[in-house]
From TrEMBL:
Gene3D superfamilies: Resuscitation-promoting factor rpfb (2.20.230.10), RlpA-like domain (2.40.40.10). Keywords: Signal. The lineage of its organism: Bacteria, Bacillati, Bacillota, Negativicutes, Selenomonadales. The keyword Signal applies. GO terms for biological process: peptidoglycan turnover. It comes from Sporolituus thermophilus DSM 23256. This is 3D (Asp-Asp-Asp) domain-containing protein. It holds the Pfam family G5. The keyword Signal applies. Residues 151-231 form the G5 domain. GO terms for cellular component: outer membrane. CDD domains: 3D_containing_proteins.
Length: 334
């Protein structure tokens, strides 16, 4: 056999072996592409239902198929929401189980079974308007079994209200008046303002108000009171200085009334110019002046002399009887 004849079989065998390798590589490449395409076609989806989160990879293109793959099935009124515009890789599907809720609106009470994810969507599905209503609980709250949703119709009304403005009280010192005395020299007069008020009603019941504007139509006039500052009193014995003045209920008694031998609680003999007091009001030993009675010393007490009362010792029974019971002005002297 010539050299040329021996070379051709070897070349043919090499050529066939190369073609087999190429075919094998092509087949492996096709399988790899097929597997890669399968993996890329899968979507990773999370399903949230019944308190669980289920992660799956799926080739399905419908929500029902994906839920079935996750072992989740919808009831007649159950609903779901997607986290993305459509089913895609990374989508979260949240399932909302239908629950019974009570809806109170315009005096009617209805029980509905709903799978809506929010109170607002429940009301939208029932055709209840969003405007001019107050909803409790809030619209973004998730419905729960047994929940009561109250929808109040809100109305508003503008009214004009007249409001009195209290007058101020002005106190002015007056040296002509004794300390403790007061004199009203000008009566106060209330003012008036008109307010525009927006009233808010819920189901016909007043629920709130808002003042929009106010206008004063009459200014108040102050009450003016003169307050005495003079701390002296003119008497038959001259000018006396006092610390304070108070009106007291006065009675009269004889020197021998009560204690034997005409002695007072302080041991001083009872006589004109001795008065019985409540020591918590006027301390014993205090000098006082009483118009139409004169100077006196608080030196006695009495069982009935309690609080703002004073008992004046007279010279005799008839004088005490004639005095009776009256209100007197008592000057507490320095």
């Amino acid at each position: 056999m010539s050299d040329d004849q021996s070379v051709w079989p070897n070349r043919l065998r090499s050529l066939l072996a190369g073609r087999r390798k190429t075919a094998l590589l092509a087949a492996l490449l096709a399988i790899s592409l097929l597997v890669t395409g399968f993996v890329w076609a899968q979507k990773k989806v999370h399903v949230v239902a019944d308190g669980r989160t289920i992660a799956i990879r799926t080739l399905h293109s419908t929500i029902e198929e994906v839920l079935a793959q996750a072992g989740v099935y919808l009831g007649p009124k159950d609903e779901y929401r997607l986290s993305t515009p459509g089913l895609q890789d990374g989508t979260v599907i949240e399932v909302y189980r239908a629950v019974p809720v009570t809806v109170v609106y315009q005096g009617k009470t209805d029980i509905v079974v709903t799978g809506k994810p929010t109170v607002g969507e429940v009301l939208d599905a029932l055709g209840i308007p969003r405007d001019q209503v107050k909803v409790a609980p809030d619209r973004d709250v998730r419905p729960t079994a047994g929940m009561t949703i109250k929808v109040a119709t809100v109305t508003e009304k503008l009214v004009q209200q007249e409001i009195e403005l209290p007058y101020p009280v002005v106190r002015q010192p007056d040296a002509k008046l004794e300390k403790g005395d007061e004199a009203i020299v000008a009566d106060g007069e209330v003012g008036l303002k008109v307010a525009t008020v927006k009233l808010r009603y819920e189901d016909g019941e007043l629920a709130g108000s808002e003042t929009l504007s106010e206008k004063v139509v009459r200014e108040p006039k102050p009450r003016i009171i003169h307050v005495g500052t003079r701390d002296t009193v003119e008497t038959s014995r001259g000018t006396l200085r006092f610390k304070r003045v108070q009106w007291m209920e006065a009675t009269a008694y004889n020197p021998t009334d009560g204690a034997p031998h005409g002695l007072t609680a302080t041991g001083i003999p009872a006589r004109h110019g001795i008065v019985a007091v409540d020591p918590d009001v006027i301390p014993l030993g205090t000098r006082v002046y009483i118009p139409n009675y004169g100077l006196a010393l608080a030196a006695d007490v009495g069982g009935a002399i309690v609080g703002n009362r004073i008992d004046l010792c007279m010279e005799g029974y008839q004088e005490a009887w004639n005095f009776g019971r009256r209100m007197v002005k008592v000057y507490i002297l320095d």
